[in-house]
Amino acid sequence: MRVKRAFWIVGGLLTPLALGSLPLPTLPAWQRPGTVGFGDTLALSPDGARLAASSADHALVILDAATGAELQRLTGHFGRILALAWSPDGTRLISSSRDATVRVWAVGSSRELRRVPVGKRLVLALAWNPTGLEVALGGADGVVRLWRSGTAEVRALSGPGPGIAALAWSPDGAHLAAGGYAGVVRVWTSGRPVRDLPLGGVVRALAWSPDGAWLAAGGETGQVHLWAVGGWRAGPVLSGPEGEVLALAWSPEGNRLASGGADLTVRIWEAGSGRPLQVLGPLPGPVHAVAWGPQGLVAGGAGVTAWPDSSPPPEE
C-alpha cells in the first residue's frame, strides 16, 4: 500500500504533513541581479503568471513569473517604492512610494488611473481585500486606513502603534491583520478590533495560510510565530534566522511556509510542525520580499531570484 498522505496532530489540530513536498532545487530557475531597491517589494498576480517588483529607478517592473523576462514598466513615482499589491482580478496595481503618493495603475495600458487621497503621509504597507472592494494602507503615522476602491472614500482604523510595516487580509476578506514598530499584531474582523497578539519586537511580515486557519508573523526577534485563528491559540514558533525576518509567504497548498531574512537567506518550514526543511542562499542582499505561486518561490532584495517548485498539490 502506498501512503499518499499523512497527518501530524499539532496542538489538537489535524495538520497535513508534506510527504509529497519535494525540496526546491538550490539552482534557481532564473535570476535577475540588481542593486539595492530592485525586488525589495514583490507581488504575484492572482493567477501567478506575472510578478510585480520595485526597481532601483522607482519604476514598477512586471516580469513573467516563469522566465523572469520583463513584460512592462510602470513609471511615475520619483521616490523609492515602499509597497505594492494587485487587485484580485489582476487588472490593477496599487503602489506607495517615498514620494508620499499612493497610485493605482491599469496594468493593461501601463497607465496611472488615480491617486489615493492620503495627503502627504508615507504609506509603508498595502493589502487589497480579496473581495476587491477595499485596500488597506499602513501608515508611518501608525494609522491603518481603508480606501474604498475607485472612490475618494478613506476611513481610519486605530492601529496597534507607530509605523504600520505589515498588513494582510485573510483569504475570505473578513479579517485584517496589521503590525509594526509597536511589536503587536492587531486583528480586525469586519472593521472591529478583536485581538492584539504580542510579538516582542518590530513586526515586519504577516501572512495568512491559504485556508485562512493560521496567521504567521515575523520581524525583529528573528522568529516566526503562528496563531490558530479559531481561538487565537499560539502554534509552533519557528526559529533559525540570524537576524530579522523581513518577509513571509505560504506555499499554495498551505503545508509549507517561507521566510526571508536579513541574513540573506530564504528558509522553508513545514508549517504544521515547525520543522525546518531547507535553507536557500545566501542571496546578494537582505531578503525583503518573498512570494510563492504555481511557478515556484520568488525572493527579492538587491535582485530577484526564483526557484521552481515541483511538489504536487495535496490530494483531496
Automatic annotation (TrEMBL):
It holds the Pfam family WD40. CDD domains: WD40. The keyword Repeat applies. Keywords: Repeat, WD repeat. WD repeats lie at residues 74-115, 123-147, 157-188, 203-227, 238-279. InterPro entries: WD40/YVTN_repeat-like_dom_sf, WD40_G-protein_beta-like, WD40_PAC1, WD40_repeat_dom_sf, WD40_rpt. SUPFAM superfamilies: WD40 repeat-like. PANTHER family: F-BOX AND WD REPEAT DOMAIN CONTAINING 7 (PTHR19848:SF8), WD40 REPEAT PROTEIN (PTHR19848). This is WD40 repeat-containing protein. The lineage of its organism: Bacteria, Thermotogati, Deinococcota, Deinococci, Thermales.
